[in-house]
Amino acid sequence: MLGLSTFARVLREVRDDVGAARDRDPAARTAGSVEILATWAGVQAILAHRVAHALHESGVPVVPRMLAHTSRLLTGVEIHPAARIGNDFFIDHGSGVVIGETVEIGRCVTVYQGVTLGGTGFARGKRHPTVEDNVTIGSGAKLLGPITVGHGAKVGANTVVIGDVPSNSTVVGNPGHTVRVEGRKVEGPDSDWIHLPDPVADSVRKLSERLGAVEARLEALDGERSSARVQELRPRRGPSTAGG
Ligand SMILES: CC(C)(COP(=O)(O)OP(=O)(O)OC[C@H]1O[C@@H](n2cnc3c(N)ncnc32)[C@H](O)[C@@H]1OP(=O)(O)O)[C@@H](O)C(=O)NCCC(=O)NCCS
């Protein structure tokens, strides 16, 4: 039943969620709690969910879904009232986040815009991801099915995850592959999942090399320098620019 203890719990959760926004969003460092509550869509979405979830747990019909629906209209974040979300949860920016009915999220988890924690089909029962403590999920990532994302893991932006993710690892790509564990590169013969062959880029590179050679010969023949130069194409390597 709904009671004072439920009310106190929801208040505590909301206070922690506002604190999470201040800790993890550089733009919120100097903002006051009222400003964050009034203008951070991700915080408003989790606030609405805390209330909807408490009502759902207490067996109140219809109202939790209406709250979730109104919250989606206002924030662009859709969270099923039954989803279990731990304290210190932070959704940065908000729009496009979908969190399904049987999702379980631990403490101190950060989710960016466009993340889906969804099912893979029409299965019933536990069909959505379980996300352990201290996980970060980059913008646009899709986590599908009853998988487990281990504590401290990082899921790169736009990654599609359809299998379990080890603790303290980094997973990137589509389908998602583990590229770091405990901060170290994954070793092994087939472990480079980042620099995958790109046949289209290879063809364009070969064409540009041939065009460059043809232009050089033309220049040598008629002594006229072409105004348009073919740029040499090089594969991109090095640190990611995706870090948020
Ligand atoms: C994955 C991420 C969390 C970084 O985690 P990390 O453990 O520090 O990993 P690194 O930065 O060392 O990257 C590991 C490798 O994966 C690659 N990588 C990183 N993010 C990637 C992504 N989203 N997709 C594909 N490859 C990616 C890096 O280039 C790097 O490759 P390298 O081994 O050739 O250097 C970060 O890149 C990311 O995607 N953050 C999400 C940020 C976000 O959504 N911001 C939105 C702000 S509005």
Report mean pLDDT, rounded to a whole number.
Answer: 90
Number of strand elements: 16
- What can be said about the biggest beta sheet? 7 strands, mixed
Encode the helix/strand succession as letters.
HHHHEEEEEEEEEEEEEEEEH
Helix content: 25-40%
CATH homologous group name of the largest domain: Hexapeptide repeat proteins
CATH architecture term of the largest domain: 3 Solenoid
| Amount of beta strand | 15-25%
Q: Runs with pLDDT <50, length 5+?
A: 240-244
Given the structure, what is the number of helices?
5
Spatial strand arrangement across the major sheet: 3-6-9-12-14-15-16
- Tell me the structural class: alpha/beta
Shape: elongated
* Distinct ligands, ions and cofactors found in the model: coenzyme A
What is the CATH third-level topology name of the largest domain? UDP N-Acetylglucosamine Acyltransferase, domain 1
Amino- and carboxy-terminal Cα gap: 41 Å
Which CATH class of the largest domain? Mainly Beta
Whole-number tally of structural domains = 3
From the alpha-carbon coordinates, what is the Rg to the nearest angstrom? 24 Å
Structure commentary:
- This protein is an alpha/beta fold and about 240 residues long.
- The protein folds into three domains: about 1-80, no CATH class; about 100-195, 3 Solenoid (UDP N-Acetylglucosamine Acyltransferase, domain 1); about 200-244, no CATH class.
- The protein is about 35% helix and about 15% strand.
- The chain has five helices and 16 strands.
- The strands form three sheets. The protein has a seven-stranded mixed β-sheet with strand order 3-6-9-12-14-15-16. Strands 1-4-7-10-13 form a five-stranded parallel β-sheet. Strands 2-5-8-11 form a four-stranded parallel β-sheet, with no helix packed on it.
- The chain is elongated, with a radius of gyration of 24 Å.
- The model is unreliable at about 240-244 (pLDDT under 50).
- The structure holds coenzyme A.
- Coenzyme A binds near residues 158, 242, 243 and 244.
- Coenzyme A binds next to strand 14 and strand 15.
